[in-house]
Write a structure and sequence with these properties.
Strand 8 and strand 9 form a beta hairpin. A six-stranded mixed sheet has the order 5-6-7-3-8-9, sandwiched between helices. A five-stranded mixed sheet has the order 12-20-19-15-16. It is built from nine helices and 20 strands. It has a domain at about 285-400: Coagulation Factor XIII, Chain A, domain 1 (Distorted Sandwich), CATH 2.70.50.60. It has about 425 residues and is of the alpha/beta class. The protein has helices at about 40-45, 85-90, 125-135, 140-145, 145-155, 170-180, 200-215, 225-230, 250-270; strands at about 25-35, 55-70, 75-80, 100-105, 110, 185-190, 215-220, 235-240, 240-245, 285-290, 300, 300-305, 305-315, 320, 325-330, 335-340, 350, 355-365, 370-380, 390-400. Helices cover about 25% and strands about 35% of the residues.
Length: about 425
């Protein structure tokens, strides 16, 4: 029987009851009290016994209700501070809820915070066994699956090393490899996967597909809208603790981008900083931005050296003369790996009227270094100020390479050796 008392997580129910949602929330609330002043010592408390402690109340999760079906791949997105990670921790039982009903029907495997459940003074080998047991396996099961865990993490030569000597990326590999080997019906994944390298991220995404095919329920928190559209059956957008919308992943990704851009405008108004166009109403919108193969198929991964294109689709809502179209590729570290615009190339883009649409493509031969690249596509007013009408940055692509020089790009080249 699942719990229906406020603040309690439900016990497991048979997976055959498909009509029973894997996760059920009704009016869930979670608040934090943030004191303005804190006592750090007994002496401070003794010297100021009557000092009034003022507190702010942060409503991290505010009246959230939803059902997640068994076997569903469900995405939760939102800006930093929107409450999505707090909600995931409530599902995992890390935080208790203040009010409402929270039911989880099935065994959970949380992959939420880097290093949770690991002991840095123990070897990776010991941590794997202990963590697997903590997630519900018996010692015999944990030992039987040890080789599979190590093989997935690709850390066999480092298993006798203490965990405190692991890099953050190695810890991510190990933690995820353990999380997917337990017998859990529901897997909770936070955005910590961003720490891993591009090849490992792709390996994790392949595992997502296998888990989904096997009927597991996956709840996925991320800022990567490309992953949301690629993997999720449904998605939910949160802002300031509340649900903004819930539904089709492409629609949620679009709303996330609009919300992000609107917040930038509001912050620019409040601070008086940023381009003047951030305060102007948008007159053009970027409806699609993606990577494409030469035959027009959307790309989420490609090999170094293969031809591909950047594409954006733009819809106009007002009359515009010679708008500027621009593309930029950002590396995982947030650095600009490539950027171009019609302004840089002195391209006269033409005159557009309300209701007009345009498709922009930039074909290029891909010699980027291996890794994940986020695409930013924008349309702006003509002129030196570059006033932005709209921008879209919710698509990414992974570049893989058999060999790499280690730089931001592996330009085609040859060696010439001369001897005197």
């Amino acid at each position: 029987m699942s719990a229906t008392l406020p603040g309690l997580r439900g016990a497991a129910e048979p997976r055959s009851r498909l009509a029973t949602p894997a996760v059920r929330l009704r009016g869930v609330n979670k608040t934090f009290r943030l004191p303005h002043e804190q006592y750090h010592t007994l002496k401070e408390r003794a010297l100021h016994p009557f000092r009034t402690q003022r507190v702010d109340v942060l409503r991290a999760v505010d009246d959230v209700s939803l059902d997640i079906a068994a076997g569903e791949f469900f995405g939760i997105v939102g800006r930093n501070g929107s409450g999505k990670s707090t909600l995931l921790k409530c599902l995992a039982g890390i935080y208790g809820i203040d009010s409402g009903v929270l039911e989880v029907n099935g065994r959970l495997s949380p992959f939420i915070e880097l290093g949770v459940g690991f002991n840095p003074d123990l070897t990776a080998r010991d941590n794997v066994i202990i963590n697997a047991i903590m997630l519900g396996l018996s010692r015999k099961q944990a030992q039987a699956r040890f080789d599979d865990i190590v093989a997935f993490a690709e850390l066999d030569e480092f298993m006798d090393l203490k965990l405190k000597n692991y890099s953050s990326g190695m810890q991510v590999r190990l933690a995820f490899a353990v999380a997917i080997q337990v017998d859990a019906e529901i897997v909770l994944i936070d955005e910590v996967l961003a720490v891993g390298d591009a090849a490992f991220q792709q390996k994790c995404f392949d595992q997502f597909q296998r888990l989904k095919a096997d009927g597991h329920t996956i709840v996925f928190v991320t800022h990567d809208m490309g992953s949301v559209e690629r993997f999720c059956d449904r998605a939910m957008l949160m802002d300031r603790g509340r649900v903004v919308d819930l539904g089709n992943p492409a629609s949620i990704a679009r709303q996330y981008n609009e919300l992000n851009f609107r917040r930038v405008r509001e912050e620019a108004k409040e601070t008086g900083s940023g381009p003047e166009t951030l305060r102007a109403p948008p007159v053009a919108e970027v409806s699609t931005a993606r990577f494409e193969s030469p035959d027009g198929e959307a790309l989420v991964m490609t090999n170094q050296g293969e031809a591909c294109s950047l594409r954006m689709d733009v819809r106009f809502h007002a009359e515009i003369e010679n708008p500027i179209f621009a593309f930029a590729l950002l590396s995982e570290a947030g650095n600009t790996s490539f950027a171009t615009s019609t302004q840089v190339h002195d391209v006269q883009t033409g005159h557009f009227y309300p209701g007009d649409t345009a498709v922009l493509r930039v074909p290029f031969e891909n010699w980027l270094g291996p890794g994940r690249y986020r695409l930013m596509a924008s349309v702006a007013r003509d002129g030196s100020a570059g006033d932005i009408y709209d921008v879209r940055a919710d698509t990414s692509m992974i570049v893989v390479a058999s060999r790499s020089g280690g730089g931001a790009a592996d330009l085609p080249h040859s060696f010439q050796i001369q001897r005197p």
